[in-house]
Every structure is written in structure tokens, then in C-alpha cells.
Amino acid sequence: MPLLRQFLMEWKLYGRDRVALFWTFAFPILMLVGFGTIFRSGSGPSLTLVVAGPASPELLAALAKTPVKPLSMTPAEAQARWKKGDTAAQLQEGRLRVNTYLAAQGQMTAQIVQQANLAVQMGQAGVAPRFLPVAMESPGSAHLSNYAAFLLPGLLGMNLLSMGLFSVGMVNVSYREKGKFRRLAVTPLPKWVFLGGQVLHRLTVTFLQAAAMLLVGHFGFHITNQGSYLLLVLVLGLGCACFMSMGFALSGFAKTSEGYAAISNAFFFPMMFLSGVYFTLDSAPRWMQQAVIALPLSPYLKALRAVFNDGATLAGHGAGLAIVAAWTAGCFLVAVKKFSWA
């Protein structure tokens, strides 16, 4: 069967490229293991408060009930640590100092210290403070405190984006640039067989890559798919179709690999940093949070995380998936119009 032979040929060519194999399979797993290990106990770095000199025993006792870990030092030791840039927040003589270079950790630590100090003052005034209970939950009420649970679907989505833009788009531009398309055009090989072999190859790479990451997530971080595996496969298939279509479409606008690199990076980097792969945009301006929804990766990751982390259906993600489907259809039409063997 011509399609099967072309499919196997694509795998042989792909298997010879060790660099591509590394970036496709090993690099995402290394990212998951690295970040998942660093933030294994939660969704962010540990909070340490350097206490320079004597401090209120009542305040230290109150901090023992919080995520903040006091680190007692002499004023000279604390100042030396501060100058090295290793201190996010420091308490000395009733005054808090926050490192501007570590503002995220320092401000969070300072807020907790302020709350503990207020609780101590209320206790001294004879008023027992009452704190509201806090539960760490995802939007689907799943109690997942491990950052790796948030990261894994993000990496799955980013891998699909990389596959479409670089493994599909860049390869086709390279084929055209080196004249391979012109040589294929005069062979008996039908166009649909050539393109079909590429599509089937990328689909199998996508699902093998996803399976490898799911296994690492399961055995390394006890992360499992909370939803329907059928829905998970359907969402992965939609993402593969969308970003492969984008790669084919963008490849029609470039004659050289250098030109395609500039075009593809103009799409890749905004989506990688603004779509919620590694972190959310809750601290970004409101207009940016709304604008990024127009990019396909952002609504796609919301749907993927809903299925994987929360066991949800796709009922509440119709608008987002419609955006992804619109990108898929639009890119496919552009790819068909722009594709040529020349």
C-alpha cells in the first residue's frame, strides 16, 4: 500500500535525526521532571523570612502555623546574605525589607508576616483571631497542589505547537528549498500519499510523545488523567490538526528556512509565553488576558486541563474549542491555497 510505505519512510527519515528525537521526546520529559521536582511540594518556591536579631516569640509562634519559615541570624549575617541577593524578605527591629529582585516571593512572605503580626496584636488585646479555611482546588474542584499537574497539559499543548510549526512547517520549507518537492513532482508518487504519510507520521509521534509524558507523570508525580481517555484523545487530535495546519499554512509564505524561522517564531513565542503553558496570566493587564484568548493555544490548554485535571466534559468550552476549530479551518484553507511543489 503506497500510503503505508510512505508512512514507514517518514519514520525512517525521522529516526535518523537524533536531534529531532531528543527535542520531541526527551526535552519535554526533562522539562516536566525538572520543574515538577523543583516545585514538587506546591505551586511555587518556598517562603523564607530572614529574622535579623531578636524577634517577638509570639510572632515566631504565629509564623509556625504558616508556610513561612523563619531563619534566625545575627544582623551582620543577615546583612551579608542580603548583599548576596539571597534574601527575599527580612525582618529586623520590627521592620520588613523586601528584595525588589525577588518581589514575588518577598511580597507574599511580607503579607503573611503582616497577617501573623495582626493576629498577635489581636491576641494581646484579648480578641481571638478567626481565619477563613483555605482549600487548594482547581476549577473542577480537584485537590491538586503539585505544580507538575498544571505543567503536564501545558507541555502537551506546547509539544503540539512545536510539532506543527517546526517538524511540519520547517521540514516542508526545507524540502522546497532543496528542490525535493520538484523531484517528487515528476515521480509516480501521488501528492495525497506524500502529504498523508506526513500527517500519519506526526499523529503517531504526537500520541507516542503524549503517552511517554503521561507515564512519567504517573510514576514520577502520581498524576493521572481524571477524565475520559476518549475525550483526551479527541482533544489531542484537535490540537494536532490545528497546529499541523498552521505549520503547513505558514510554510507557504517562506522560500527559505531562515525566512520561515522568523515567521514561525512570530507565532511560537507569543503563544508559548502568553497562553498559560508554564504559568497563568492572572497578574497581567486585563486587556492582555482577553486578547490572548484569540490565540488557539490559550483556549486549547483550558479545555485540555479541564479534561485531564478536572475530569470535566467539553460542555463549558464550546467557545474556546470553536476558536481552535476556526484556526484549524482557516489555516487548512490557506495551506491548500499556498501549497505548491515549486
Automatic annotation (TrEMBL):
InterPro entries: ABC-2_transporter, ABC2_TM, ABC2_TM_bact-type. Keywords: Membrane, Transmembrane, Transmembrane helix. The chain crosses the membrane at residues 20-39, 147-171, 192-217, 229-250, 262-281, 314-336. It holds the Pfam family ABC2_membrane_3. It is a multi-pass membrane protein. One of its GO terms (cellular component) is membrane. One of its GO terms (molecular function) is ABC-type transporter activity. Residues 116-342 form the ABC transmembrane type-2 domain. It is found in: Membrane. PANTHER family: DOXORUBICIN RESISTANCE ABC TRANSPORTER PERMEASE PROTEIN DRRC-RELATED, TRANSPORT PERMEASE PROTEIN. This is Transport permease protein.
